Amino acid sequence: MLVEMRIYYCAPTRLPALLDRFRSTTLGFFDKYGIEQIGFWTTAVGADNHALTYLLKWEDMAQREARWNAFQQDPEWIARRAETEREKPIVTRIENSFLIPTDFSALR
Description:
The chain is an alpha+beta fold. The chain has one domain (about 1-100): Alpha-Beta Plaits (2-Layer Sandwich). It has three helices and four strands. A four-stranded antiparallel β-sheet has the order 2-3-1-4. Strand 2 and strand 3 form a beta hairpin. This is NIPSNAP family protein. InterPro entries: Dimeric_a/b-barrel (IPR011008), NIPSNAP (IPR012577).
């Protein structure tokens, strides 16, 4: 198992727009492409409270590349994402890391 941690840093005041896009659009595309989420979090206390952090679960990097690339190239996804950013951008920066659970992790 491989866990991908993604952190989306939003422009000021744009976190609600990102949350709405995930609720109403992105998660449907995740389902379409078999992208399995572990969870989503906003930052209550920390360096940046305009951030959304989420974890995705993959069998391996090959599965991740196939499914993520198909999702990113979907013309409907591209159009709907562009529509949400028509007035101004939502995300200013994205970080992602790939995590492998230890043998003593509750999640393996």
